[in-house]
Design goal:
- The protein is built from 22 helices and 11 strands.
- The chain is α/β, with parallel strands linked by helices.
- The strands form 2 sheets. A 9-stranded parallel β-sheet has the order 2-3-4-5-6-7-8-1-9. Strands 10-11 form a two-stranded antiparallel ribbon.
Length: about 500
């Protein structure tokens, strides 16, 4: 039996799948970082450009600084970044020299492992991005094979892609990504050998979500077939639409006779911390779900489903979730069955929502859908429905986007944002100025907090509410008493 390593996805993909990518702040990550560093994980799935944008927008936190602080707190565990190689935070394509600077800054901040995922499986683009990452000092580059179910994506298709990854000297390992959790144990028995047979000895990792309840079983088959690293989550950031639970996967693999190189006590401590955090912040915990065959039709990843639910609730349309999901499947077919991996789930979902709430289908078409039909993201696996394509390309906005200039290069961006350092400039190039300004102001007002105790959160929230009661002055003094304990808080009072 083989030695299997685990990679933890709690901070990035677990957070994205279950908590809408908004659930963790820098101090919450830093509090558990030393424990995660002792756990023996092969790496931490730490961030993406989307997560970096959320750090700015939702938490007013500097994402570059977050990486630096986490790297210092996790000296023995590589931090992993996942990206397409053609965009940063914004859905619009970035200039290659701008992307080179992004990767340069990520390496300098402490990212040691990169996943390169091209949503169209454009291997030439993957090779170019891998070469860029290695040129700026990236230690490890993993090429992604994104799993989907269609007449085109058979074992031979993926074996051919694996052979191209093996031939690229800048790619050190491969990654089978199953964002919707569609990979069955039976398919794994043919697909994984087809891939590993073409990798020329490069390691293969498996990343499969629990959305359909299949991945815990598929992981056991994968371990038998030579997959060296399995991606898992901790405690409440596992299961549901996230990935399998690290503790359960470890127990199951050991039951089969495999050696799993993790520190059990540290993994248990991390899971316990995330459970306490989830309770303190009213975050949902991932739980094993029932099999839902509809995912085979729409093929949305768990994180996209969770985010879609949240966004519909925010605009008062929670009751239209079923209609939007049905429309997602229809739009995906009309757009030529793109693999539902970033940015295409967002492209399809935005059009599906517009179709559901609009006066008629395709009356409103988001810019990214137009760019998709224009071919800006590459060639889809199947043709776009001719009637849909004609309707979209006949829009005045389509003519404007067809004539838009190429994305700006570094010289133009530096002239546009004089005095900004590279990290600030990269954020300003793709985010609203007000959001970046608010982040910088928050950083100047106070240094980033590095500690978080979920057990105290309820008390701290109560104090904050008491101190800012509407309709009258807030509480300025408070005394807490119980047998053997007294605490007095106030402007002039001390503690006893």
């Amino acid at each position: 039996m083989a030695e299997i390593r685990l990679l933890d996805v709690s901070i990035r993909d677990g957070n994205q799948s279950l908590w809408g990518a908004t659930g963790l702040t820098t101090r919450q990550i830093l509090q558990i970082a030393p424990v995660l560093d002792r756990a023996g994980f092969a790496a931490l799935d730490f961030t993406s450009s989307t997560h970096m944008g959320i750090a700015v927008r939702n938490h007013k936190e500097n994402p570059w600084q977050r990486i630096r602080l986490a790297h210092a707190a996790l000296p023995h565990t590589p931090l992993q970044f996942i990206g397409t190689g053609f965009r940063f935070i914004s859905w619009e394509t970035s200039n290659p020299e701008v992307m080179r600077l992004v990767y340069e800054r990520l390496v300098d901040c402490g990212i040691g492992k990169f996943i390169v995922l091209d949503p169209m499986h454009d291997m030439a683009a993957v090779r170019r991005t891998a070469a860029t990452i290695r040129a700026v000092g990236g230690q490890e580059v993993m090429g992604a094979l994104t799993y989907t179910v269609s007449d085109v994506h058979d074992d031979a298709f993926y074996a051919g892609l694996a052979g191209q990854l093996a031939a690229c000297p800048d790619i050190t390992r491969a990654y089978l990504k199953d964002p919707a959790g569609l990979l069955t144990p039976d398919r794994a028995r043919t697909l994984i050998p087809a891939i590993t047979g073409q990798l020329a000895g490069k390691p293969l990792e498996l990343h499969s979500h629990c959305t359909l309840g299949l991945s815990p079983l598929t992981y056991l088959i994968a371990a038998e077939l030579g997959v060296s690293v399995l991606h898992t989550g901790c405690g409440p950031l596992a299961n549901g639409t996230s990935l399998p639970d690290a503790q359960r996967v470890t127990a199951n693999l050991r039951e089969q006779g495999h050696q799993v190189s993790v520190n059990d006590a540290a993994v248990a401590a991390a899971a316990a911390y995330f459970r306490r955090l989830a309770a303190a912040e009213s975050r949902p915990a991932g739980t094993p779900g029932e099999y839902d065959a509809s995912f085979l039709r729409h093929q949305l990843a768990g994180g996209v489903v969770t985010t879609l639910r949240r966004q519909l609730a925010e605009i008062g349309l929670a009751g239209r979730f079923g209609a939007v999901m049905a429309e997602v499947a229809r739009v995906r077919a009309e757009l030529g069955y793109p693999i539902m991996v970033t940015p295409f789930p967002q492209v399809v979902c935005s059009q599906a929502l517009a179709n559901v709430i609009g006066s008629e289908r395709y009356a409103q078409v988001p810019d990214q859908v137009i760019r998709y039909v224009l071919g800006r993201f590459g060639r889809p696996a199947g043709p776009v429905d001719p009637e849909v394509a004609d309707r979209i390309l006949s829009l005045p906005r389509a003519r404007e986007l067809a004539a838009e200039p190429p994305p700006p290069g570094l010289a133009e961006l530096r002239a546009r944002f004089p005095g900004a350092g590279d990290e600030e400039m990269l954020l300003r190039a793709v985010m609203p100025a007000g959001e970046v300004d608010a982040m910088l102001a928050a950083g100047r007002a106070a240094p980033p907090a590095r500690h978080y105790n979920p057990d105290l959160q309820g008390v701290l929230d109560l104090l904050a509410r008491l101190g800012s009661r509407p309709g009258g002055p807030g509480v300025t003094d408070m005394s807490v008493r119980k047998p053997g304990f007294r605490l007095t808080l106030g402007g002039a009072a001390g503690a006893g």
